[in-house]
Amino acid sequence: MARVRPTAESSMHDARFRHVVFTQNKSDSNMVKTRRINLTSRIKTTRMIKIDTSITAISEVIIRAGVCSSTSILLTIDTRKDHFTYVDVYCQEMANVNLVTFLSGSALNHIEINIHLQGYSANANVGLACLPNQAGAAVVHSLQDHNDRLTISNLECRAVLADETRVHYHGLITVSKNSNGTDAYQKNANVLLSNRAKAYSVPKLEIEANDVRCTHGSTTAGLSEDDLFYAASRGLNSTISKRLISQAYLMTVAKFLHDPKLERVFNRLVASQLARVIK
């Protein structure tokens, strides 16, 4: 089925907390403009990709990791209006992909990340940090698709939610019959800074092979009172304490980048956005 494109008249807000499927109609003159980014890695690639949501309502990022290649990517999406992003990653034999995505903004930030491990011993590490502000929402759908032996995938989605922000995470791990030796990990963790913030988590597994290791988990809680007390004992006020603890919480996914320069950029982005969210 062709990938869906919402029209200009689509009600994107109605899709905040359900898996939306839009059908593509080529004859529709009101079709929303789509931006497509193609990246092919053959040896070693390090890159930051910033999605400009003011130009298009839909973005596509396609990453093809060749045999024995190494790819590290920081993807940032800051929404002022509703935006849909589709990310497809294809990993060939012994390829290694490290992808961290930072979602922020005051509108609907909908992303689908599909990781296809197509070659022997392919490896993918994916981290997502969600920090919507005001009444913003993040909807995340992830797929870890294992199609060969000894493939490895690690995915971690973390969110910090203040005010009336929301996040909905839907994660799926699939393992085909010929994918013995697969090692797949999936985690969703959320911190609520407000009684009005909400987090939804729906993890799923579909396993057809026998010799595999697949795990998933989900946690949702407020900030630790012990951490806040420790910060206060060091002379930090409540606002600064919450920012620093939240920053450390989101920066956990930076370990997937395996690149010091990208990690520093990511750290600055998180700190800047937290200054807008926690006041």
Count of DSSP H/I helices: 3
Beta-strand percentage range = over 45%
Which structural class best describes the helix and strand composition? mainly beta
Could you give a short account of the major beta sheet? 7 strands, parallel
Order of helices and strands: EEEEEEEEEEEEEEHHH
Number of β-strand runs: 14
Give average pLDDT, whole number: 87
Spatial order of the strands in the main sheet? 1-3-5-7-9-11-13
Q: Helicity, in percent?
A: 10-25%
Distance between the termini: 45 Å
Indicate the radius of gyration in whole angstroms: 19 Å
Uncertain stretches:
1-31
Shape: globular
List the helices and strands and how they pair.
Elements: E1 34-41, E2 44-51, E3 58-65, E4 70-79, E5 83-91, E6 96-105, E7 108-117, E8 123-132, E9 137-146, E10 152-161, E11 166-175, E12 182-192, E13 198-207, E14 212-221, H1 225-233, H2 238-250, H3 260-277
Parallel strand pairs: 1-3, 2-4, 3-5, 4-6, 5-7, 6-8, 7-9, 8-10, 9-11, 10-12, 11-13, 12-14
What key phrases describe this protein's structure?
279 residues; mainly beta; globular
Description:
- Helix content is 14%, strand content 48%.
- It is mainly beta and 279 residues long.
- The protein is globular, with a radius of gyration of 19 Å.
- The model is unreliable at 1-31 (pLDDT under 50).
